[in-house]
Write a structure and sequence with these properties.
Elements (H helix, E strand, L loop, with lengths): L8 H4 L6 H8 L8 H8 L10 H21 L6 H7 L20
């Protein structure tokens, strides 16, 4: 997204979770991190219409739920900051932000 900053500055400024980075941090050692490989790893069936926008969004959301659960269960991510860092978001810290962090993701 950062490569498109010149063309879409507002979109480029939105922090996005990168599910590829999140998957690599959550299940290291897989031979492939393509969406189809991750679906197979988690036993999530491929939807009808795979490679169409809405089915891919829906199945990626299901994958994200599994990645979040596995990351928290494995003790890899207990806070939103840890999730952001694993998923490629570089949070901006404000001097006016309250001290401390939340104790868990959910």
């Amino acid at each position: 997204m950062a490569r498109q900053a010149e063309h879409c500055p507002r979109l480029a400024a939105i922090p996005l979770l990168d599910t590829l980075r999140l998957a690599k941090a959550t299940v290291p050692g897989l031979s492939s991190y393509r969406l189809d490989s991750l679906l197979a790893h988690y036993g999530i069936p491929q939807p009808a219409g795979r490679h169409r926008a809405m089915p891919d969004v829906e199945v990626t959301a299901r994958l994200l739920v599994r990645l979040l659960a596995d990351g928290e269960r494995g003790g890899r991510r207990r806070t939103l900051l840890e999730l952001d860092m694993a998923a490629g978001v570089r949070p901006k810290r404000s001097s006016s932000a309250p001290e401390g962090e939340q104790s868990c993701l959910f």
